[in-house]
Amino acid sequence: MGASAAPISHLLPSALNPKTPFFILSKKLCQTTPRIKSSSSSSSSSSSSSSSSSSSLNIQRRQLLLLSVPVVSYTSIFQYNSKSFAAPGYDPVSPAERDASLSLSQRVSEAVSLLEKGRDLQAQGDFIQALQCFSQVVKDYKDFALSDYARVGRAIALYEVGDKEEAIAEMEDVSISLKGYPEVHAALAAALYSDKHAPLLAENQFTIATLLDPHYTELSYVRETKHWPPSLVSSLQNFITLS
């Protein structure tokens, strides 16, 4: 029998380390020369067998080289393309609209703060300063719905400082724009009865007020909770007692 090529299994490591890169393994295999047993009688069959074994080894080497080539993941390619063709962020609010919204929010905050200041001054009995705060809200923030509530406070303060004609005119006007707001109906009823001597009109206004809030039949409520001035409390007392 002619000499045959020895199997290459003894050339490979017994336990392949999973951390060993493919290109290192292929390099080692390429540098290793297989050992072939020599024989005194070489024949044509042994030469052809050696050539076949060498061809098989070359094929295995090429396969290992192919496996050692790094493969680019499709995920990386997709992420790169997504970043390359990503559309810029779209903001539906323009800078001018954002500035207008900020300005409006600031105006609302100022109006509410001024209205609360007027009510605090009214609770302290300082109706002159309260009148100034309420009047400023009506003047500077008349485009806001809360200005009608400032008009109620302004009318009550006007009634206390002595301008009862303007106070009643303001109450009559606000009783329409704020129809259903019990305080303005109760205050108007007291003023109509005591200053205009109009008991029927006063009764109509007071009926609306007490249907919405029965507390207005109590003098302590308007004095301590609503902080009405003494003059308006006295007028309401005259109406309730029909004096």
The 3D shape can be described as: elongated
CATH topology of the largest domain: Serine Threonine Protein Phosphatase 5, Tetratricopeptide repeat
What's the total helix number? 11
Q: How far apart, in Å, are the first and last alpha carbons?
A: 145 Å
Q: What's the oligomerization state? A: single chain
> What's the architecture of the largest domain in CATH terms?
Alpha Horseshoe
Q: Note the beta-strand portion.
A: under 5%
Query: What is the number of E strands?
Result: 0
Q: Roughly what percent helix? A: 55-70%
Described by strand count, sense and barrel closure, the largest sheet is:
none
Order of helices and strands: HHHHHHHHHHH
Unreliable parts: 22-27, 32-47
Q: CATH H level of the largest domain: which superfamily? A: Tetratricopeptide repeat domain
Structural class of the helix and strand makeup? mainly alpha
Q: What's the CATH C level of the largest domain?
A: Mainly Alpha
Rg calc: 50 Å
Average pLDDT reading = 79
Number of domains: 2
